[in-house]
Design brief:
The protein is an alpha+beta fold. Helix content is 36%, strand content 24%.
């Protein structure tokens, strides 16, 4: 199929882009890498009457360090560039563990880091990773700019905090504290397919070996990134034994997620995957926190 007709704008600056979005409101849609939006337009699942192409906005393409040791990523930076960037690997290795699971290299060469977050597909890896890392997102409009936490940015099925006249322009990722560990795992029918279920995990140990903090963020099991709060609460203050990890993973599968059935998997199978992936991811993350690899 072909998309419905639309007006096309190609701004060269962020100021031009947000001015165009402000002018057209809900009729406008920002175009980043186009790997999600264009297929949706071709199938007429999305029918914006105005398309604002951000590919000429050079100020949104960057990866750079900040004084607080965080790494800042421009929203239009290609996923493949983020995947290979040594600074991202140093500050946020969880990001580089997840990115090879995102579609194929050809897709990641066009797809953008910010575009995936703004699209908010509940099956996408990067929104869950952003929440697990407590990423901060900078949104900009003609009214000014604001920073929001990733956990607040995702509002539901393909829905975010972005107003019609706003752009996601930058993502800030801070390094994990000392004695922290991380893990990323997913299960898909075929390599690079959308996952049936997946998880991004981060943990932190005290000096005496108890769990000070844990975060399990699942995807493909709800309307967006799903934080397993009850599972994490069971781990805090405990030495992360195999039994404690098993109980937390079981709680995640039975109490923290509410998956639905579709042609790819039943809800019960997804609950099973949540438990299995949670157990494996927590074991790996705590191992990293203890310096075991």
């Amino acid at each position: 199929m072909k998309p419905a007709s639309f007006e096309y704008y190609a701004p060269q600056t962020v100021s031009e882009a947000v001015a165009t979005l402000a002018q057209h409101g809900y009729d406008g849609k920002a175009l980043a890498g186009g790997q999600s939006l264009i297929p949706m337009m071709n199938f007429r699942l999305a029918q914006p009457s105005v398309l604002v192409d951000l590919n000429g906005v050079s100020e949104l393409f960057y990866v750079r360090p900040a004084r607080d040791s965080s790494v800042h990523i421009g929203a239009m930076t290609r996923q493949r560039e983020v995947e290979l960037d040594p600074l991202v690997g140093q500050v946020a290795p969880l990001v580089q563990a997840a990115l090879p699971k995102v579609a194929y290299p050809q897709i990641r060469t066009r797809g953008t880091f910010g575009g995936s977050l703004a699209h908010a597909d509940p099956s996408a890896e990067l929104p869950a990773v952003a929440v697990a890392l407590d990423a901060r997102l900078r949104l900009q409009s003609r009214r000014g700019e604001r920073w929001v936490a990733a956990k607040d940015f995702f509002q539901g099925f393909f829905t975010t905090l972005l107003e019609p006249d706003e752009l996601l322009v930058e993502i800030a990722l801070s390094p994990l504290p000392p004695r922290s560990g991380w893990s990323f795992m997913e299960v898909a029918r075929r390599h690079h397919d959308f996952a049936l279920a997946g998880v991004a995990a981060t943990v932190r140990l005290s000096g005496s070996g108890e769990c000070e903090d844990a975060r399990l963020v699942y995807f493909s099991v709800g309307d967006g990134p799903t934080v397993a709060e009850q599972a994490a609460a069971l781990l805090r203050g405990q030495v992360p034994s195999d039994e404690a990890i098993q109980e937390a993973a079981r709680t995640a599968g039975q109490a923290d997620v509410d998956p639905s059935s579709d042609i790819n998997a039943t809800a019960e199978y997804r609950r099973h995957l949540v438990e299995v992936l949670g157990r494996r991811a927590l074991a790996e993350a705590f191992g990293r926190a203890r310096g075991e690899g």
